[in-house]
Amino acid sequence: MALQLRKLSYALGAEVCGVDVARGMSESTFGEIYHAFLQHGILLFRGQDVTREQHIEFSRRFGELDRHEALPRDRHPQYPELLMVTNEPKPDGSPSDTQYTGRQWHSDMSFTTVPSLGSLLKSYTVPEVGGDTLFANMHAAYEALSDGMKKLIAGLHGIHLSGTRKLANDNSGVVRAAEQKRLNPPVAQPVVRVHPETGRKALYIGEKVKRFDGLTDEESRPLIDYLVRHATKPEFVYRHQWRKNDIVVWDNRCTMHQALGDFDETQLRHMERTTVLGTPSGYVVADA
Length: 288
Prior knowledge:
Elements: E1 4-7, E2 14-17, H1 27-40, E3 42-45, H2 52-60, E4 83-86, E5 116-125, E6 133-137, H3 138-143, H4 147-153, E7 157-160, H5 173-183, E8 187-190, E9 192-194, E10 201-203, E11 209-212, H6 217-231, E12 237-240, E13 247-251, E14 255-259, E15 270-277, E16 283-284
Parallel strand pairs: 2-3
Antiparallel strand pairs: 1-2, 3-13, 4-15, 5-13, 5-15, 6-12, 6-14, 7-8, 7-11, 8-16, 9-10
């Protein structure tokens, strides 16, 4: 039986219907899923009441998994392949280290020299309303640029920083930023990346980009802001409204995403993510 897909938006994404990822599937079935992943950039699997082991096992079909050594505070204590995305307080009552994870436009692990191929995020508990995630199609964003802009950015490398931007209600941002810079020195990535499997060009930019290599912060900022603003126009974006037991898998090589804080933060939002390692890219910048 052919894979049943339902488009999620004009920009990108498809829901995979009638598939239980916890059940064994043939190589041909997974091959159809992977083809859809490359074609649509995002796949949604609803109603996946799976164990952590089953989440990890399904994720491994996409490739080798990151053990998140670059983010030691954020990974699950028993399952290093799982990155926690939760506002649930720690056992001692202190705030979660990941309550504000993803609140800026980014591509996962872009601040490393092996940025992510893909991510698989499972929702366990979601607030009554809100807590949505936005995804942007970076192929479409690149293709919509003028020929002059494509020429201008063709040789540029953006310097990506790890850590989360400090928010008004986040007192941990400064400490975490210093720790992350020590663990993960800044990495320069090409602003235009060629997808290693499809050969298509995509913008590789985001709000974690400090400046362009060879340019000052002041010189870089207007162009960074323009490219992020351009890539996140409504016509390039899908907004995902989470339900309990969703699994969303996205291709970090051609999408960018942002978690929204549009929910009552007294309500629990708990998710766990696996990260599929990608191909080597970029280089460390010592003086960023």
